[in-house]
Amino acid sequence: MAPERPIGAGAFPKPVESPAPDTPDPGQLYAALDLGTNSCRMLIAQPKGNQFHVVDSFSKSVQLGAGLEKTGRLSRSSMNRTIAALKVCQQKLKRHQVTRMRLVATEACRRARNARDFIRQVRRDTGLQLEIIQPEEEARLAVISCAPLVSTKTDQLLVVDIGGGSTELVWIDISSVPNRDRPKAIMRLHAGFHPPESPFPAAKVVDWISVPLGVATLRDQFSDVEDDAARYALMSWFFEENLAEFAPYKDEQTREGFQIVGTSGTVTTVAASHLGLRRYDRTKVDGLRMTSDQIETVIARYLELGPAGRRRDPRIGQDRQALIMSGAAILQALLRCWPTDRLSVADRGLREGLLYAQMSADGVLEDGPF
Predict the structure, then answer these.
(1) Strands of the sheet with 100-105, listed across from one edge
(2) pLDDT digits (tens, 9 = 90+) for 45-60
(3) Which residue in 185, 242, 276, 345 is a FRET match for 316, CA 20 to 30 A apart?
(4) What pLDDT score does 253 carry?
């Protein structure tokens, strides 16, 4: 499947994920659910100023896309696991009396031949109405959720969202924007990735791409390769081959003034390993900056550990050990193309963007971009 380049964008203010201090008014609550190729995740939050407070959350590895690469269909066992997780989400939504929500599905449901049947079964069994969003919107939401991490010294920005079934890359030129306004300029992409002409300096989306290879789909491509190091090398090479048509790939970049913001479980896991955390701590990971050399040191350590060692590593864990090397292969391919001293780790993504989209549309955020 060829990478896609639809058009569109949007932007919102900085998320806050601290729990709400008081029992919230159900009328103020919003929910966002992200059903990906590997995970089902949901946030319930209430607006607070130009940010939000999380009231409840849910995250579960459901492996919806297991076997999809070979059959082109969602398996019965994968659908049953996912529906069981969605029933938990439905109970949380009912308990909090949430009426404003957006529940989306991404690459696995975009690709599966029986996705529509699955969506109907979810509606029948849980009462939840899932919406399959296109790569354009997935990329847009990744950009806006990461906007607060953009440095005022950044001229060229690459936002990377490594998912289970696909990877979105968005290259943005903000060199013409005054330094102090650069994070806000990312938020102002509300008119699309190619908005109408404006008298004000604006962020320019140079190019963007959705590669139909994520941590699960890339792993499945090379599941028949037994040697750990060989499989890793092949995955990284194959992903880089799929970037050949991405326009900025052809231009050599200097490290000065260039920033990558990465949002995914891969990036946060690598960051946790770099920090030596025994227990994951979002406050230490979100916003952390790493160099290419630091990331490559972590990946080399993963290879030294081998499958058994990675399984025992508390920073990786049982659930992620099967996917971490395909994610690392994607990450290292990106760093070969665009080495940087400033890769910012984002523990945020689609759910945060979905929440801000709803809240902004309703006008409940103070000093929002709309």
Answers:
(1) 51-61, 39-48, 30-35, 100-105, 131-132
(2) 999 887 789 999 999 9
(3) 242
(4) 64
**Among 257, 290, 289, which Cα is nearest to 152's?**
257
287 is written with which tokens?
Answer: 């916003």
More reliable by pLDDT, 329 or 253: 329
Q: Does the structure show a pLDDT above 70 at 19? A: no
Q: Check if the beta carbon of residue 191 is closer than 8 Å to that of residue 13.
A: no
Order of strands, edge to edge, in the sheet holding 156-162? 204-211, 167-173, 156-162, 258-263, 343-346, 289-290
Options 2.30.110.10, 3.40.710.10, 3.20.20.70, 3.30.420.150; CATH for 137-346 is 3.30.420.150
Each domain of the chain, given as residue ranges in start order, spans: 26-134, 137-346
Residue 88's pLDDT is 97
| Paired tokens of 204 | 């320019």
Which letter, b or e, does each residue of 212-248 get, where b requires 16 or more Cβ atoms within 10 Å of its Cβ? bbbbbbbbbbbeeeeeeeebbbbbbebbbebbeebeb
Q: Find out whether 331 and 266 touch, Cβ atoms under 8 Å.
A: yes
Topology of the domain covering 26-134: Nucleotidyltransferase; domain 5 (3.30.420)
Return the closest-CA partner of residue 225 out of 215, 234, 237.
234
- Biggest alpha carbon–alpha carbon distance for the chain: 57
For residue 193, the SS3 value is: coil
